[in-house]
């Protein structure tokens, strides 16, 4: 009888509620489109200040890929850029993304292959808002762009 009572007590105390919903992966919590303001600064001079849409796609449960939209005009256009493998961590209601560096190649406005590097990327997601900061080196430009995007999830 004593063994049965212990088994019942242990069984009841170790079970969680069936009503508990599993935690959604952090990448799923932030994936989506964000509209907002993008600012690029080169050599301490603002070169672009536009309303843009940034895309974030789940890569794994704890990482996302980001698309930086096209910036500039004519032959000075930097096409849309992919940045892959941004690692996510969660602290309370804030999700933080970090990436030391990502290198890629794409076709420039003149049709030639252009190398690019996005570095020192930080993304802060809180509720439906985001702030992203990063450095962008594109092609043979002598100075990197300092990029900042502040947006709201669609």
Per the principal axes of the C-alpha atoms, what is the gross shape? elongated
Radius of gyration: 22 Å
Query: What order do the SSEs take from the amino end to the carboxyl end, as H and E?
Result: HHEEEEEEEE
Question: What is the overall pLDDT average?
Answer: 86
End-to-end separation in angstroms reads 60 Å
**Physical arrangement of strands within the biggest beta sheet:** 1-2-3-4-5-6-7-8
> What's the total number of strands?
8
Q: Give the helix tally.
A: 2
Strand content: over 45%
Oligomer designation: single chain
Write the layout of secondary structure elements.
Layout: H1 2-14, H2 26-30, E1 32-42, E2 45-60, E3 63-68, E4 81-91, E5 94-107, E6 113-126, E7 129-138, E8 145-153
Antiparallel strand pairs: 1-2, 1-8, 2-3, 3-4, 4-5, 5-6, 6-7, 7-8
Notes on the structure:
With 154 residues, this protein is mainly beta. Helix content is 12%, strand content 59%. The chain is built from 2 helices and 8 strands; from the N terminus they run ααββββββββ. The chain has an 8-stranded antiparallel β-barrel. Strand 4 (81-91) and strand 5 (94-107) form a beta hairpin. It is elongated, with a radius of gyration of 22 Å. Residues 1-18 have low confidence and may be disordered.
């Amino acid at each position: 009888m004593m063994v049965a009572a212990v088994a019942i007590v242990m069984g009841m105390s170790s079970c969680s509620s069936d009503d508990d919903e599993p935690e959604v992966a952090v990448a799923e919590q932030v994936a989506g489109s964000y509209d907002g303001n993008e600012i690029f600064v080169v050599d301490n001079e603002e070169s672009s200040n536009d309303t843009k849409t940034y895309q974030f796609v789940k890569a794994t449960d704890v990482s996302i890929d980001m698309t930086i939209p096209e910036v500039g005009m004519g032959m000075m256009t930097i096409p849309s850029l992919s940045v892959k493998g941004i690692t996510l961590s969660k602290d309370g209601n804030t999700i933080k993304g970090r990436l030391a560096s990502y290198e890629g190649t794409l076709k420039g406005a003149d049709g030639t292959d252009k190398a690019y590097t996005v570095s020192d990327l930080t993304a802060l997601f809180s509720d439906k808002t985001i702030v992203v900061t990063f450095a962008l080196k594109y092609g043979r430009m002598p100075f990197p762009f300092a990029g900042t995007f502040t947006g709201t999830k669609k």
